[in-house]
């Protein structure tokens, strides 16, 4: 969009300075025509560069926005009320607090990136008294980070936040020690994420 605007501005300015050059040549026939055109074209290029700089600043201010709203608003937070032993697979964070963009599936416990971009993903777990639990934060099945609550007769909370690039269709979830129980009497067990910025990040 910005490139199209810049092209039209360039065409308009060149046309204006061409007309200006013709007028100068008519008013002052002793002035060399080529010298006149070179001078006016230099002025045009200076103004074009100035406008290009202003457009870049405007583009940076509106980065990631369209009509003052994010292009791909994505954010979710969910709690787990799963009182049975943890499954051999994704943990069910079944109680949604927020699911902007509907990219989190509470039935599967998986978040699917709707667009490529930079994301922040967080997981917190509290084991039931006496339950020692390991929880893995996974991307497409690959373990990226691990949490551990030791237990030993007291409640412990473990949490991690990962800031990472995801491609469209990548999935994130948390899986724990099968059969172990988490404490669901209070909202300690949370899975959440948000899109920070869309685009390609290495």
TrEMBL record:
<dbReference type="GO" id="GO:0005581">
    <property type="term" value="C:collagen trimer"/>
</dbReference>
<keyword id="KW-0732">Signal</keyword>
<dbReference type="InterPro" id="IPR001073">
    <property type="entry name" value="C1q_dom"/>
</dbReference>
<keyword id="KW-0964">Secreted</keyword>
<protein>
    <submittedName>
        <fullName>C1QL</fullName>
    </submittedName>
</protein>
<dbReference type="Pfam" id="PF00386">
    <property type="entry name" value="C1q"/>
</dbReference>
<feature type="signal peptide">
    <location>
        <begin position="1"/>
        <end position="21"/>
    </location>
</feature>
<dbReference type="InterPro" id="IPR008983">
    <property type="entry name" value="Tumour_necrosis_fac-like_dom"/>
</dbReference>
<feature type="domain" description="C1q">
    <location>
        <begin position="69"/>
        <end position="202"/>
    </location>
</feature>
<dbReference type="InterPro" id="IPR050392">
    <property type="entry name" value="Collagen/C1q_domain"/>
</dbReference>
């Amino acid at each position: 969009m910005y490139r199209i605007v810049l092209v039209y501005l360039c065409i308009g300015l060149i046309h204006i300075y061409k007309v200006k050059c013709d007028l100068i040549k008519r008013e002052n026939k002793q002035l060399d025509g080529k010298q006149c055109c070179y001078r006016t074209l230099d002025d045009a290029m200076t103004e074009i560069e100035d406008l290009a700089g202003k457009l870049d600043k405007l583009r940076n201010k509106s980065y990631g926005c369209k009509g003052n709203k994010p292009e791909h608003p994505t954010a979710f937070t969910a709690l787990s009320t799963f009182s049975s032993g943890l499954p051999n697979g994704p943990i069910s964070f079944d109680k949604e607090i927020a699911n902007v963009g509907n990219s989190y599936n509470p039935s599967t416990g998986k978040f699917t990136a709707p667009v490529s971009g930079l994301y922040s993903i967080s997981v917190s777990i509290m084991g039931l008294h006496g339950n020692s639990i390991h929880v893995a934060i996974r991307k497409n099945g690959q373990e990226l980070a691990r949490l551990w609550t030791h237990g030993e007769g007291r409640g412990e909370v473990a949490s991690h936040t990962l800031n990472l690039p995801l491609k469209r269709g990548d999935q994130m979830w948390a899986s724990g020690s099968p059969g172990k129980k988490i404490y669901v009497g209070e909202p300690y067990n949370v899975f959440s994420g948000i899109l920070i910025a869309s685009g390609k990040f290495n």
